[in-house]
Structure formats: structure tokens, C-alpha cells
From TrEMBL:
Purine salvage pathway enzyme that catalyzes the transfer of the ribosyl-5-phosphate group from 5-phospho-alpha-D-ribose 1-diphosphate (PRPP) to the N9 position of the 6-oxopurines hypoxanthine and guanine to form the corresponding ribonucleotides IMP (inosine 5'-monophosphate) and GMP (guanosine 5'-monophosphate), with the release of PPi. This is Hypoxanthine phosphoribosyltransferase. It comes from Desulfofundulus kuznetsovii (strain DSM 6115 / VKM B-1805 / 17) (Desulfotomaculum kuznetsovii). InterPro entries: HGPRT, Hxn_phspho_trans, PRTase-like, PRTase_dom. It is an enzyme of class 2 (transferase). It is found in: Cytoplasm.
Length: 185
């Protein structure tokens, strides 16, 4: 296991099995329709790549990037769009794909924003859900795993831009991020 990691939380095999299940469920729900899958950069990219290849319906892909809200712990955290969709979603069936829902601020903003663009339908799929950390309620339609309040990396999730390439979902050693804060102070 990677030296910066405390332990494996979800193995590559468990992820793959759950992604196949989610793909089958989504394919059933959208049978006969075309789906626009919107991946939220950067963290959702790896999950999205595996998920869409488990769909047996017509699919188009698009991406958005939003700012991480400021360090303020207020629930009114501001989220800005850094990269917007390339196409008009009016009248389309849209599925937002995320790697994790933590405070819910990112998804809450995205859902509100995309609803103003008139999609025929808008649903949310996340690989991971940390309900204990929620600051705003956001409805998730497809949920991979509910996880405890631990900082996880791997399978797209990062710390300081690192570890996204790891094949499992792992818990990062505290000294990795506590050490960085000390250096920064
Ligand atoms: O529910 P929230 O508290 O809003 O947190 C979840 C968001 O935070 C992470 O993204 P981040 O903004 O770190 O950017 P990244 O996807 O590029 O890692 C993660 O990928 C989610 O998008
Ligand atoms: O546990 C986690 N790991 C990586 N990024 C995020 C964002 N919110 N929660 C996270
Ligand atoms: Mg993200």
C-alpha cells in the first residue's frame, strides 16, 4: 500500500462491482432515452469514464469545473463556474456525475444552476457520500457508497492534486495533511 496511506477503504474490485450495478440501474431508468452525462472536473473523471462504459443507452458527455468554495465554513460557501458546459441542455435528460458529496455545497450550486437551463430532467450520481459533513441538503439519485468522515483519496479523489491515479479509495495518513499545514504556517 502507498506509504502515505492509512488504509484501503474501498478496493478497486469493490468499486468496479458497484459501478457496474449503478450502470445497470441508470440504463434501466433511462431505457429508450439519450442521456447527457456531465462530469465535474477533476475528481469525477475516472468514475465517469468507468460508469459510462457500463451504460447500454445512447450517451453524450460534457464537463464542468467549479471553484472549491472558500475556506469559510459558512453554509453559504460561494461556488464559481471555472469551465462551463459546451452545449445547451434545454430539453435534454441530464445526469451530473460526481466523485463525492461532502458538505453538498458544490452539488447544490450545480443543481440550481443547471435547472435554470431547462433540462427535461436532471439527476445526480455520486460514487461516494459523506452524510455526516452535509451543510446543505442535496438529493442524490444514484449513490455508490456511504462513507465515514475520513479524508479519502484515489480513483480521482485528490489531496493537493496528488493520488488521483491510485486504483483504490484510501484513507490518507493524518501526518500527510497536518504536515503540509505546518509547513504552510
Ligand atoms: O460536497 P462538497 O463539500 O462541495 O465537496 C465535494 C466536492 O469537492 C471535491 O472537488 P474539488 O472542489 O476539491 O475539486 P476537484 O474535483 O478538482 O478535486 C469533490 O470532487 C467534489 O466536487
Ligand atoms: O474525502 C475527500 N477527499 C478528497 N476530496 C474531498 C472533498 N470533499 N471530501 C473529500
Ligand atoms: Mg470535485
Amino acid at each position: 500500500m502507498h506509504e502515505d496511506m492509512e488504509k484501503v477503504l474501498i478496493t478497486e474490485e469493490e468499486i468496479a462491482r458497484r459501478v457496474r450495478e449503478l450502470g445497470a440501474e441508470i440504463s434501466r431508468d433511462y431505457a429508450g432515452k439519450e442521456l447527457l452525462v456531465v462530469g465535474i472536473l477533476k475528481g469525477a473523471v475516472i468514475f465517469m469514464a468507468d460508469l459510462v462504459r457500463c451504460l447500454n443507452i445512447p450517451v453524450r458527455l460534457d464537463f464542468m469545473a467549479v471553484s472549491s468554495y472558500g475556506t469559510s465554513s459558512e453554509s453559504s460557501g460561494v461556488v464559481r463556474i471555472l469551465k462551463d458546459l459546451e452545449q445547451n441542455i434545454e430539453g435534454l435528460d441530464v445526469l451530473i456525475v460526481e466523485d463525492i458529496v461532502d458538505t453538498g455545497l458544490t452539488l447544490n450550486y450545480l443543481r440550481e444552476n443547471l435547472l435554470t437551463r431547462g433540462p427535461a430532467s436532471l439527476k445526480i450520481c455520486t460514487l461516494l457520500d459523506k452524510p455526516s459533513r452535509r451543510k446543505v441538503n442535496v438529493q442524490v439519485d444514484y449513490n455508490g457508497f456511504v462513507i465515514p468522515d475520513e479524508f479519502v483519496v484515489g480513483y480521482g479523489l485528490d489531496y493537493d492534486g496528488r493520488y488521483r491515479h491510485l486504483r483504490d479509495i484510501l484513507i490518507l495518513k493524518r501526518e500527510v495533511y497536518s504536515g503540509k499545514e505546518q509547513r504552510e504556517n
